[in-house]
Design goal:
paralog of FGE (formylglycine-generating enzyme), single chain, 26 strands, four-stranded antiparallel beta sheet, 34% helix, flat, 4 domains, alpha+beta, 765 residues, 19% strand, nine-stranded mixed beta sheet
Length: 765
C-alpha cells in the first residue's frame, strides 16, 4: 500500500513543484540578505521571513496534490484540462500575495516598531561602546535615526549625555551658516547645523571641525569642542577684501599662558587683533627683497647684537645672505627659493629679518600671549595629527588641515615662528616647533639667538587693532625649567624629618552616615559619611560607592580616589553620585566589583577655602595644604579600617591630573596601598618649600604604579614632566608601567578601562 502511494506521488508533480518552491524561497532569502542593510531593516526580518516561507510550504504541497488528484478524476478531467492554466495561475498568485503581504507587514513591524528590550539590550550597549572609544558622532547618528523618531525610553534619554551636548552657538553676526564634521574623520561630508544664532542644538561631544559661511565674507574652519576642555571661541567673519583675505579675527579678553613653565605668569588683558591665517610664504618674502627690503634702513630699527656686543647695520647685513652671498634667507640660492615652492613658508631667517619684514607690511611679530591664544596648544592631540613634524622639509601652507580653534593653520610644525618677546637674557622666543622637531614641541617654548638663521625658522604676523600690543604682553619671559633627574636628593635622614610632618595621632573618628541610598542607581548603593579629620578638630566627608554585584559574603576591594584640580573650584558635591554613575572614569571600577571612596579633601567642594590653585608655591600655606591632603587620604583609610565589610589587604590609589601629581607625595607617605593607577600625571615645574617638594617623595616610592598619559599633555609635558616622574619612581621595573597615547591631557576611556582593570586585578590579593 505504501509503495502504491509513493508511485502515485511520483506520478504527480508534487516533487517538481516543491523543488520549484524551495528554489523560489532561496532566491527570496538571498535578495532579503542583500537589501536589508541599506534599507535599514532589522536582521531579525530574515528569520521571520524563513518562518513565513516554512509556514506556506504545506499549502504548496496540498494545492499541488489536489490539483493533480482532480486531474485523475474522470468526471472533472476535462474541466481541469480546460482550466489547468487558471488553476496554476490562481495558486501562484495566492502564494505570491501571501508572501508579499506577510513580508510587507514584517518589514513594517521591524522598521517602525522599536521595543524597549531592543533599545536596552542592543542599542544602548552599542552607544556605550562607541562613547568609550570617543566615536561620538557615530553614536549620535545611531541614537537619532528615523526608526527612533517616536520612541520615548528613559534609559536611552539618559544615554545621550555620554555622546552629545546641547550647544548654543552665537556670534555678533547673523545669517551665518554653520556646519560640522568629526575632526578625526575629515573625509566625511559636512553636516549642516543651521543659521546663527543656534540655541540648544543637539551635537556630538568631542572635537569637531566647524565651518562658518556667509555671503560676502571669508569663510572660516576651526576646531570646536563640546567638552570641559574646549568651548567654541568668540569668532568673527571678516569681509572679503584684499587686505584681510588671509587674516583671522581674535577677540580680546583676559588671558593666561598655557605653555608649560609659563602658566605661573599673571593673566594679561588683550585687545582685539588679527593674525595671519598662514605663515609668510616664499613669494610673499620675495616681494620684500625685490622692493629693496634689505637695503632700506627704515625696516631695520632694532639694535643688532653679536656675541653680546652691539654691531652696526652694515656688519649685521653681511650675515643675512643666502647660500650664494646675496641678501635673503639662508636656505635660498642666488636670491631664489626652490622652484615650485611659491606657497611654501619662507625659511632660514633671523629674528631681525622677521622684524624687518613685519615693518615692511605694517604688521608685527606676535607676542607670546597673542601667539598662544591663537595656537590653542591645549588641543594639541587634535592639531598635531594634521601637522608637519619630524619630516625632511616644509609643505605648502594650509595643506595639512592642522587648524586651531580660531581657524589658524600650521601653528604646529612646518616652521618655528618668531615672537617679539625676549627670553633668557638676549634670546628671542620662537614657537610652535618646525618640521625638524618632535611633535610634542608644539607646546614647548624655545629661545634662540636673534641672529639664528636655522632652516626651520619662519614667520607669522599679527595686526594689533589698537595699534600696539598691550605693554604687559611684551614683558621678558622667565622660564621655570627644571631638570628633575639631576636635582639633588636630600639624605634619608633629612627625608625622614619631612615624613614626620605627615604623621598624626590616631583619634576616634566618630563616623556618621549623612545619607544612604540603595535604590537610585542600578550599579551601586552609596553612603555619604562624615568623620573626624586628622587636624584642627575638623570634620571631613566622603562618598562610599558599593557595587551591587558584589556577593554579600565577600569583603570589598576598594579604590581610593584623588580628583583633578576642578574639585578646587566646586562648592558642592551633591551631584557626585550621578557623575560616578555616568562617567567612564569611575563607573568601570564598580562594574568590575571594586568599591570606590571619594574623600572630600581640604579646599575642595564643601570644604572650599582660600586656596584656589593646585600649582605648588613656596608659601607656608601651600605646605600645610599638602600635609592636609595627605592626612585626609590616610584618615579615609582609617575609616575603611573601622568597617567590617572592607578588605584592607586590597586598597588601591586612583588619581587623575592633580590627583596624579599628589600621588608623588601620598604614595611615599602612605604604605597601605597595593598599587596605583595614575591618569595624566606628572611633576610640576613650580617650586615649593623643601618639605613638600614632590620629586623628593617620588624617589622614595616603591608601590606598583601604572601611568597613563597623553604625549601632548600641556600640563605635564612628555619629556620634562611625565618621563622624569616615571624614571624617579623607585618601584621595581617589573611593577611599574608607562603607557603613552597620542593625546593631550586625557586618554580614551577604552584604554583607561582596559589598562586600569588589568593593573588592579594584577595586584589584588
Amino acid at each position: 500500500m505504501m509503495s502504491n502511494y509513493l508511485i502515485e506521488l511520483k506520478k504527480s508533480k508534487i516533487f517538481k513543484n516543491v523543488g520549484a518552491y524551495l528554489a523560489f524561497s532561496f532566491i527570496i532569502i538571498q535578495l532579503a540578505e542583500i537589501l536589508f542593510e541599506p534599507l535599514g531593516v532589522d536582521q531579525k526580518y530574515i528569520l521571520n521571513l524563513l518562518f513565513l516561507l516554512a509556514l506556506i510550504f504545506p499549502f504548496v504541497v496540498l494545492i499541488t496534490y489536489f490539483i493533480n488528484r482532480e486531474k485523475n478524476d474522470e468526471k472533472s478531467a476535462n474541466f481541469i484540462k480546460k482550466n489547468q492554466f487558471n488553476f496554476r495561475l490562481l495558486s501562484s498568485v495566492f502564494i505570491l500575495l501571501l508572501i508579499f503581504g506577510l513580508s510587507i507587514s514584517n518589514i513594517l513591524l521591524y522598521t517602525s516598531k522599536v521595543t524597549d528590550e531592543w533599545i536596552e539590550n542592543d542599542l544602548i550597549p552599542e552607544l556605550v561602546e562607541l562613547s568609550k572609544n570617543r566615536k561620538y558622532t557615530t553614536a549620535l547618528a545611531l541614537a537619532t535615526s528615523d526608526k527612533l523618531n517616536d520612541t520615548v525610553n528613559k534609559k536611552l534619554q539618559e544615554a545621550f549625555k555620554l555622546f552629545s551636548f546641547n550647544a548654543d552657538i552665537e556670534l555678533d553676526q547673523s545669517e551665518v551658516e554653520v556646519s560640522y564634521k568629526p575632526n578625526n574623520e575629515l573625509e566625511l561630508n559636512w553636516k549642516s547645523v543651521g543659521l546663527l544664532p543656534i540655541k540648544n542644538k543637539l551635537m556630538p561631544k568631542g572635537f569637531l571641525r566647524m565651518k562658518f559661511e556667509k555671503p560676502g565674507y571669508n569663510s572660516l574652519e576651526n576646531i570646536g569642542g563640546f567638552n570641559y576642555r574646549s568651548r567654541l571661541p568668540k569668532i568673527k567673519l571678516l569681509e572679503k577684501t584684499q587686505a584681510n583675505k588671509n587674516e583671522i579675527f581674535i577677540a580680546g579678553g583676559n588671558y593666561t599662558l598655557t605653555i608649560p613653565g609659563l602658566d605661573h605668569i599673571e593673566a594679561v588683558d588683550i585687545g582685539n587683533y588679527h593674525i595671519d591665517k598662514f605663515e609668510v610664504t616664499n613669494i610673499d618674502y620675495m616681494k620684500f627683497i625685490n622692493d629693496g627690503g634689505y637695503q632700506n634702513p627704515n625696516y631695520w630699527v632694532d639694535k643688532f647684537t653679536f656675541k653680546g656686543k652691539i654691531v652696526n647695520r652694515d656688519s649685521a647685513m653681511k650675515m643675512m645672505v643666502d647660500k650664494s652671498g646675496m641678501p635673503g634667507p639662508s636656505t635660498w640660492i642666488g636670491g631664489q627659493y626652490p622652484k615650485g615652492q611659491d606657497n611654501f613658508p619662507v625659511t632660514g631667517i633671523s629674528w631681525y629679518e622677521a622684524s624687518a619684514y613685519a615693518k615692511y607690511v605694517n604688521k608685527s611679530l606676535p607676542t607670546i600671549y597673542h601667539w598662544n591664544i591663537a595656537a590653542n596648544t591645549a588641543a594639541a592631540e587634535q592639531i598635531i595629527p594634521y601637522s608637519n613634524f619630524s619630516k625632511e622639509g616644509t609643505v605648502e601652507v594650509g595643506s595639512l588641515n592642522g587648524v586651531t580653534r580660531y581657524g589658524v593653520y600650521d601653528m604646529a610644525g612646518n616652521v618655528r615662528e618668531w615672537g617679539s618677546n625676549t627670553i633668557s637674557g638676549n634670546q628671542k622666543v620662537i614657537l610652535g616647533g618646525g618640521y625638524t622637531d618632535m611633535n610634542y614641541s608644539f607646546q614647548d617654548i624655545f629661545g634662540q639667538n636673534p641672529l639664528n638663521r636655522s632652516e626651520s625658522n619662519g614667520i607669522r604676523l599679527v595686526e594689533y587693532l589698537n595699534g600696539t600690543p598691550e605693554k604687559k604682553s611684551l614683558n621678558d619671559i622667565i622660564l621655570q625649567e627644571r631638570d628633575f633627574l639631576n636635582e639633588k636628593l636630600v639624605s634619608e635622614e633629612i627625608f625622614e624629618s619631612y615624613l614626620n610632618n605627615f604623621k598624626y595621632d590616631k583619634i576616634d573618628l566618630n563616623p556618621k552616615v549623612l545619607m544612604k541610598d540603595d535604590t537610585t542607581f542600578d550599579l551601586f548603593s552609596f553612603e555619604k559619611i562624615e568623620f573626624n579629620a586628622a587636624y584642627n578638630n575638623e570634620r571631613m566627608q566622603a562618598y562610599l560607592f558599593l557595587p551591587k554585584a558584589n556577593p554579600s559574603n565577600i569583603k570589598y576591594k576598594t579604590v581610593v580616589f584623588f580628583p583633578g584640580s576642578g574639585a578646587l573650584y566646586r562648592t558642592s558635591s551633591d551631584d557626585m553620585p550621578q557623575i560616578v554613575n555616568d562617567s567612564f572614569n569611575y563607573n568601570f571600577l564598580l562594574k568590575n566589583g571594586y568599591a570606590l571612596i571619594r574623600p572630600i579633601y581640604k579646599s575642595t567642594y564643601e570644604r572650599s577655602d582660600e586656596l584656589k590653585s593646585d600649582y605648588p608655591n613656596q608659601s607656608v600655606s601651600y605646605k600645610k595644604h599638602v600635609i592636609y591632603w595627605s592626612n585626609d587620604f590616610s584618615a579615609s583609610l582609617d575609616y575603611l579600617e573601622s568597617r567590617t565589610d572592607m578588605d584592607m589587604d586590597n586598597i588601591f590609589y586612583y588619581g587623575i591630573s592633580w590627583g596624579g601629581f599628589m600621588a608623588n607625595t601620598i604614595l611615599a607617605v602612605e604604605k597601605r596601598i597595593n598599587s596605583a593607577v595614575l591618569l595624566v600625571a606628572g611633576l610640576c615645574f613650580q617650586k615649593s618649600l623643601p618639605e613638600v617638594e614632590a620629586f623628593q617623595f617620588t624617589s622614595r616610592i616603591t608601590t606598583p604604579v601604572i601611568m597613563l598619559n597623553g604625549k601632548y599633555d600641556h600640563f605635564f609635558p612628555y619629556q620634562t614632566s611625565q618621563l622624569p616622574m616615571y624614571k624617579l619612581l623607585k618601584t621595581p621595573d617589573k611593577d611599574k608601567k608607562y603607557v603613552v597615547h597620542e593625546d593631550g591631557h586625557t586618554i580614551p576611556p577604552s584604554l583607561l578601562i582596559k589598562e586600569a582593570i588589568s593593573w588592579l586585578d594584577k595586584y589584588s590579593k
